[in-house]
Amino acid sequence: MTSAEEKSELFRLAEEARTNAHAPYTGYRVGAAVLTAGGRYFSGGNVENAALTITSHAEMNAVAAAVAAGEKEFRTILVLTETDPPAFPCAICRQALAEFDRGELLILAANTRGEIRETRLSDLYPEMFGPHKLL
Predict the structure, then answer these.
(1) Which of 27, 59, 81, 128 is deepest in the core (most CB within 10 A)?
(2) What is the DSSP letter of 32?
(3) Strands 106-111, 74-81: parallel, antiparallel or unpaired by DSSP?
(4) Residue pLDDT, tens place only, 14-55
(5) Could you report the per-residue pLDDT of 94-113, keeping only the tens digit for each?
(6) Range of the domain at 15
(7) Is the pTM value of this prediction over 0.90?
(8) Residue 107 to residue 34: CA distance in whole angstroms
């Protein structure tokens, strides 16, 4: 369960990351923040590149920051955009998150107006390919 205080902190960090995102080509700024099983927070924004295929997504940048700090178990990820309704992670990010999902990863899709949609990764991506498929 993610508390109201935890959701508020995730939103704050995702907004900060979204503000700092590098999106000169599309203008589509995305921020993401993850809450680890150990109670630590990490965030990331999208970083576009003129060669758009190597653009890095906010969700993957937040996860990469957590992994670099030794965290690999996540409880919740909040993805912040300006869209109405709020956008859930794209297919590429769903696959990236599947690497660390243990069936309980909470996905919060939020927009800058404060609307939040909530689901589990397993509901967004029911036939996900993950480490369990390789064992």
Answers:
(1) 59
(2) E
(3) parallel
(4) 999 999 999 999 999 999 999 999 999 999 999 999 998 999
(5) 999 999 998 899 999 999 99
(6) 4-56+79-119
(7) yes
(8) 9
| Catalytic residue check, 115 | no
> What region, left, alpha or beta, does residue 114 occupy, with left being phi > 0 and alpha being psi -120 to 50 degrees?
left
Query: What angle in degrees, to the nearest 10, is found between the helix axes of 91-98 and 58-68?
Result: 20
- In the set 5, 6, 48, 59, the catalytic residue is 59
Is 127 part of a structural domain of the chain?
A: no
For residue 131, is it within any domain?
Answer: no
Backbone angles phi, psi at 90, to 5 degrees: -70, 175
Write out 55-122 in H/E/C secondary structure.
CECHHHHHHHHHHHCCCCCEEEEEEEECCCCCCCCCHHHHHHHHCCCCCCCEEEEEECCCCEEEEEHH
* Sign of the alpha-carbon torsion through 6, 92, 98, 118: positive
> Facing residues of 74 across strands?
36
